[in-house]
């Protein structure tokens, strides 16, 4: 029974040595990790912006708050995306990708775009596809987009969403239509009952529920084409109900566009 007792001090010594070795190895691993995290390999060396059309890349970088030399581990993608979108009204969202081996942060931008010109009194404002008012413009700047008039709209303020649900819905729907189709629209008037009158550049107009504009647009074009081919002069086609759709010609004083009807 004495032999096992002689081995116990040796076993204790081995255990202490193993524990010491683990502590030493852990210490050096910790030092190596700290050195690695503080090394240039884990720093931002390149910031790459893509997908932007109207927003300059340098503005995206400035809004991100990122800069070369920052630690890659400090990059919070969702926070960076939210920060850029808050600073730049034309930015819808940003996909942030960190590439540690390259020391690179990619900022892929998805932009909003202008879909309409809101008119209030004698003032005009560009409106984005989410219904946000972008900026005020003058008629001399030219109107590349449909002019949007909304009955009862209290105010139009750059940086804020249009204060009318039907108007916001129309803006979102215009973004889904083909550009060639939107280019045929000169003006959209939304009344207090949520009915949108869409004036086309060929002189015809159509009435649809504002929130069904995109869904009924192809039907409107087909109806207008039918009446035009059958010799009807410009007028309003009412698509708020079921076919056959009612056609009402414009009065002579309002012929050609937004005149009476």
From TrEMBL:
Annotated transmembrane regions: 21-37
Keywords: Cell cycle, Cell division, Cell membrane, Membrane, Transmembrane, Transmembrane helix
Protein name listed in UniProt: POTRA domain-containing protein
Keyword Transmembrane included in the entry's annotation: yes
Gene Ontology CC: one annotated term: plasma membrane
GO terms (BP aspect): cell division
Species this chain originates from: Alicyclobacillus cellulosilyticus
Keyword ATP-binding set for record: no
Segments forming domain POTRA: 42-112
InterPro entries (UniProt xref): FtsQ_DivIB, POTRA, POTRA_FtsQ_type
Domain of life from the UniProt record: Bacteria
Location(s) in or outside the cell: Membrane
């Amino acid at each position: 029974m004495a032999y096992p007792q002689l081995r116990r001090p040796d076993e204790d010594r081995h255990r202490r040595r193993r524990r010491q070795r683990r502590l030493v190895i852990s210490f050096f691993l910790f030092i190596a990790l700290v050195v690695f995290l503080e090394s240039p390999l884990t720093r931002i060396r390149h910031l790459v912006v893509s997908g932007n059309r109207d927003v300059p890349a340098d503005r995206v970088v400035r809004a991100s708050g990122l800069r070369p030399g920052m630690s890659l581990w400090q990059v919070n993608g969702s926070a960076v995306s939210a920060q850029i979108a808050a600073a730049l009204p034309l930015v819808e969202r940003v996909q942030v990708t960190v590439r540690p081996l390259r020391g690179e942060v990619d900022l892929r931008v998805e932009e909003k775009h202008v879909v309409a010109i809101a008119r209030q009194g004698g003032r005009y404002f560009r409106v984005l596809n989410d219904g946000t008012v972008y900026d005020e413009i003058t008629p001399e700047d030219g109107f590349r987009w449909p002019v949007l008039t909304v009955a009862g709209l209290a105010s139009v303020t750059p940086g804020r969403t249009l204060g009318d649900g039907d108007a916001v819905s129309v803006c979102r729907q215009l973004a889904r239509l083909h550009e060639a189709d939107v280019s045929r629209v000169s003006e959209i008037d939304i009344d207090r009952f949520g009915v949108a009158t869409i004036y086309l550049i060929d002189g015809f107009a159509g009435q649809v529920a504002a929130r069904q504009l995109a869904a009924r647009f192809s039907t409107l074009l087909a109806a207008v084409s039918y009446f035009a081919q059958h010799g009807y002069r410009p007028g309003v086609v009412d698509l708020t109900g079921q076919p056959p759709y009612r056609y009402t010609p414009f009065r002579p004083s309002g012929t050609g566009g937004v005149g009476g009807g």
